């Protein structure tokens, strides 16, 4: 066999996998709640972050902010750990509910003191977004309006400090409050788009018997971040129409996508990798949504 041909063949064998890898590199973050079992069992955060980066994840969303720290680390330590692994710090799930007195009076001054410290810590950690991950269904529309006012105030304070504030849904937000208004619709209509975005969890929208695309059309531009979730590994159940969701992502206002895996059908490391591989290989998922 001709030596020149052999060298060309070798070059192709090297170049093809590199081209495939380059083609499938995408900006996809992971919610660290996905690897909670590893972290709760004592796995070193630095090692877990490196594993996730090696799989191809590019950023993280925290879920363990407490008393000014993230996973027991100072904001600066957490930022260094994520960046040392080769990823970026994107966002964090945390919140503070209103006391009965605050809910009755509409005066949030005490809770806003907590947010001052929270925002400072998140800024030091290099966060772009702070997201409230949960709110119970309020008993009255008045209470729901009070919470919308509260979220507007938090969002305004975040914006003034260079951060963005959002709310993450589950399925219960599609219930009606006082049999009058759909909770999520009311929140979308009574929060300031300049100060409050929504992190749509597409799986929970489907479980709430609704269509993510319908919400994109009804409230365009409000869904800055998408939580990509499925019954187990992403793309495995056939329940969530990811192709239609991504085809309408621009209308939704999507800037970032975050994988969250809550249940596994295999070891957690394999589960989060399978989920990422599905998104990397899906032709309808763009390389980036922030550009």
Question: Can you describe this structure?
Answer:
By secondary structure, the protein is of the alpha/beta class. The chain is built from 13 helices and 12 strands. The strands form 3 sheets. It has an 8-stranded parallel β-barrel with strand order 1-2-5-6-7-10-11-12. Strands 3-4 form a two-stranded antiparallel ribbon. Strands 8-9 form a two-stranded antiparallel sheet. A hairpin with a 2-residue loop joins strand 3 and strand 4. The longest helix is centred in the N-terminal third of the chain and has 22 residues. The N and C termini lie far apart (48 Å). 37% of the residues are buried.
Summed up, what is this model?
The protein is of the alpha/beta class and about 290 residues long. The protein has 13 helices and 12 strands. Mean pLDDT is about 95; it is low at about 20-25.
> Hey, roughly how much beta strand do the residues contain?
15-25%
Rg over alpha carbons: 21 Å
Structural class: alpha/beta
> How helix-rich are the residues, as a percent range?
40-55%
Taking pLDDT < 50 over at least 5 consecutive residues as the criterion, the unreliable ranges are: 18-23
Total DSSP E strands: 12
Main-sheet strand order equals 1-2-5-6-7-10-11-12
Query: How large is the count of helical segments?
Result: 13
Tell the overall outline.
Answer: globular
The profile of the biggest β sheet is: 8 strands, parallel, barrel
Gap between N and C termini, in Å? 48 Å
Report the average pLDDT across residues.
94
| Run of helices and strands | HEHHEEEHEHHEHEEEHEHHEHHEH
């Amino acid at each position: 066999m001709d030596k020149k041909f052999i060298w060309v063949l070798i070059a192709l064998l090297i170049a093809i996998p590199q081209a495939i890898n380059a083609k499938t590199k995408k900006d996809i973050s992971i919610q660290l709640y996905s690897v909670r079992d590893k972290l709760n069992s004592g796995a070193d955060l630095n090692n877990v972050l490196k594993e996730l980066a090696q799989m191809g994840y590019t950023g993280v969303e925290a879920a363990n902010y407490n008393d000014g720290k993230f996973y027991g680390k100072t904001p600066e330590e957490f930022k260094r750990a994520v960046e040392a692994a080769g990823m970026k710090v994107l966002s964090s799930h945390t919140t503070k509910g209103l006391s009965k007195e605050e809910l009755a009076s509409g005066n949030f001054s005490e809770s806003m003191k907590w947010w001052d410290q929270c925002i400072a810590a998140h800024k030091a950690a290099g966060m772009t977004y702070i997201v409230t991950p949960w709110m119970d269904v309020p008993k009255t529309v008045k209470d729901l309006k009070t919470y919308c006012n509260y979220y507007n105030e938090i969002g305004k304070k975040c914006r003034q400090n260079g951060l963005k504030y959002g709310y993450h849904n589950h399925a219960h937000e599609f219930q009606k409050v006082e049999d009058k208004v759909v909770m999520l619709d009311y929140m979308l209509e009574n929060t300031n788009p300049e100060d409050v975005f929504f992190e749509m969890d597409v799986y929970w929208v489907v479980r709430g018997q609704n269509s993510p695309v319908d919400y994109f059309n009804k409230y365009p531009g409000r869904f800055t971040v998408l939580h990509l979730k499925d019954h187990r590994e992403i793309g495995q159940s056939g329940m969530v129409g990811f192709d239609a969701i991504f085809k309408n992502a621009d209308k939704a206002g999507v800037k970032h996508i975050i994988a969250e895996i809550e249940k596994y059908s295999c070891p957690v490391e394999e589960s989060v990798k399978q989920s990422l591989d599905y998104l990397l290989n899906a032709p309808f998922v763009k390389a980036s949504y922030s550009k």
